[in-house]
Prior knowledge:
Layout (H helix, E strand, L loop, with lengths): L1 E9 L7 E11 L2 E13 L2 H15 L2 E3 L14 H19 L18 H10 L4 H41 L9 E16 L2 E10 L4 E6 L8 E14 L2 E13 L1
Helix pairs in contact: 2-4
Amino acid sequence: MITQHYIYISTGETNGFYTLRSKRHFQSGNHFGYRDNFIKNSSRDWDTALKEAHFVAKARGAKVITGPDDKWDLNEWGSGKTSIQNISRYVEWQAWLMDGLMPFGKHKGSPIDSLPESYRIWLRKEADGSKYWDLLIKFLKSFEAADNAWQEERNKILEKRQQEWKAVRERSNWIGNVGQRITKVVTCEHKHPYEGHFGPGYISTLRDQNGNCFKTFGTCALVVGEMAEVKMTIKKHDEWKNEKQNVVTRLAVTAS
Length: 256
C-alpha cells in the first residue's frame, strides 16, 4: 500500500478557530482513497495556525497544503460540517494533484503527465470559473511548465552525456593483430544478455585505461564496474557507431 500524508487548515465548526486536520491518501492496487481526521483546534490567527501546521507536519512526516489562495478567513467557507466538507473536497483534489494524479473522471488516479492532449484541451474548454476548475487548470499548466522545464534539463543532461561518450569513443583504437593474444587491465563497462545458438550469453564491453574498447561474446567472469587484468585473443577489428572496437575471444582473468 502506498500512503501520502497531508496536514491542512480548516475553519473548524462554529467556534471561530482555525483547526488542524490530517488527510491520508492511500493507494492499494487500483484502489484509491482518503482518510480525513481532526487533529486539534489551533488559533484565530492564520499565520499562527499555519506555523503550527508545519510543526505538526514535520513531527508526522507529512506535507502541508492550504487553501486556493494560500489563506482564507474564518468561516469563509460556511459553518459547521459544510465548511469542513468544502475544504475537505478542495484538499482532496489538491492532494491528488500534488501527487500528479487526476482527481476525478474516467482518468481518476492516472498520472496527469500521461493524460491525452485531447483530454487536456477538453478540460480547459470545460473550465467554468469555479475554484475547483481553476485549481485543476492551474495545476495542469504548472505540470506542463514543469514538464517543459524537465524536458529542457533532460535534453541538456543527454547532450552533455553524449558529448562525454563521444569523447570516450574517439579515444578507442584497434590493438594488436588478429590472432594475437594480449594482456590488459580492463574495466567491465557493460553486459547485455542475449540468446545464442549455444544458449544464453552476454555481450560484454570492456575498456582499458587508455580508453580502448574490447568486446566479447559469450561468458565473462567480470561484473559491471569490476577491474581486472585479463588475457584475451584478438578475433577481429570492428567499428560500431564510429568507435573502433576490438572483438576478443578466450578471455581469462589473470589478476583482480
